[in-house]
Each structure stands twice: as structure tokens, then as C-alpha cells.
Design brief:
Helices cover 27% and strands 27% of the residues. By secondary structure, it is an alpha/beta fold. Strand 2, helix 2 (44-60) and strand 3 (65-69) form a beta-alpha-beta unit. Helix 1 (12-29) packs across helix 2.
């Protein structure tokens, strides 16, 4: 049956509205979709990035580049000798040089996942700029990272987990707060 949520923050329609709003904000700030590359952090961030790219395509009549990134080799909570090597971190067809790159993630917490994603992206070239879009900013930052586009700020306790649910992985849509249930902190 799974862990029961402590609170439901957003339902399916709320999540759709947040993705729509972020998409419009991205278009407005970047004066269109030209030169945009959306890079979603694997798993849920990648799903959200594709949804934002689809919405931007509806708005602008042109789809921005969209890719998925695996930040595993860049994580700082795994000893260097144990990190997976040789895995494709970012689709080799994606060229970030000179592009406006928007990293997309579901929940911003300590900032370490985003730092890893920025390192992975910048290893691929010199982006014109790097921006960050998140569905939820839950606070508790350990690094000086601030999102450019935020769906919702949710103050949380360290004994809670915020989960953005997407049909592709969870069979339902929304944002919930869950008890950690003995798990350690995630990056």
C-alpha cells in the first residue's frame, strides 16, 4: 500500500498549473524558445522537463531541445572509487555551448543534486547561461543555490520527504509530504 502522506500539497491539476506557469515564465525571461536547452535530472526532473518543453512548444510553436541527465558520476555522497564510470551522463547529441540551459528538477533540497548537474552540464561545454527550474523548493540548503523558476516553496522538517508524483513512476500526479520512515537524508 505504501507510506501514507502526511499532507497533500498539490493535486494533479495543481501540478499541471505549476508546469504551465513555469513554462510561461521561462519563455518570458528568455524572450522565446530559441537557444533554449532543457535538461531534466533523471528521473522525475526528466519527466517534468519534457512536459515543460511540450508546453513551450505549444506557446512558441517551436520545441526547445530537451535531454535527460544522470548525475550519478558527479554525486558527492558516493566515494570517487565507487562511482559508475563510462555511463552516458548526458545525450552526446546535446551541445550546451552558447545555449541557455535550464536544469529541471522536481524538489530542491540541499542543492547538492543541482551542483552535480551543473558540473555535468558544464563538463560538456560553456553554456551561455544556466538557469534552474524546480517544482518544489523545500529549503535546508547546504550550498548557495537558488532556483530561477519555482512552482511552490514548502517549508519542511528534516524528518519529512517531499515527493513530486508523476504518472510515469508513481501511477498518480501531485506533490505530497511523507515521513522519512528511518531513511537517511537524500542529496
Amino acid at each position: 500500500m505504501g507510506i501514507q502522506p502526511k499532507a497533500v500539497i498539490m493535486d494533479k491539476d495543481g501540478l499541471r498549473r505549476v508546469i504551465n506557469r513555469i513554462s510561461f515564465e521561462i519563455v518570458e525571461k528568455n524572450k522565446g524558445a530559441e537557444e533554449l536547452t532543457l535538461i531534466g535530472i533523471r528521473r522525475r526532473g526528466a519527466v517534468i522537463a519534457r512536459r515543460i518543453a511540450d508546453k513551450i512548444s505549444e506557446i512558441e510553436g517551436m520545441a526547445p531541445e530537451c535531454a535527460e541527465i544522470d548525475i550519478t558520476p558527479y554525486r558527492d555522497d558516493i566515494p570517487a572509487g565507487e562511482r559508475q564510470k563510462g555511463e552516458s551522463v548526458l545525450d552526446s547529441r546535446i551541445n550546451v555551448t552558447g545555449r541557455k540551459v535550464i536544469i529541471v528538477d522536481d524538489v530542491l533540497f540541499t542543492g547538492r543534486t543541482v551542483r552535480a548537474a551543473m558540473n555535468a552540464v558544464l563538463d560538456r561545454g560553456r553554456a551561455r547561461c544556466v538557469q534552474l527550474a524546480v517544482i518544489v523548493d523545500r529549503g535546508h540548503r547546504e550550498l548557495p543555490i537558488r532556483p530561477d523558476y519555482i512552482g511552490k516553496n514548502i517549508p519542511t522538517s528534516l524528518s519529512e520527504k517531499v515527493q513530486v508524483q508523476v504518472t510515469e513512476y508513481d501511477g498518480k500526479e501531485g506533490v505530497v509530504i511523507l515521513p522519512l520512515a528511518g531513511r537517511g537524508q537524500e542529496i
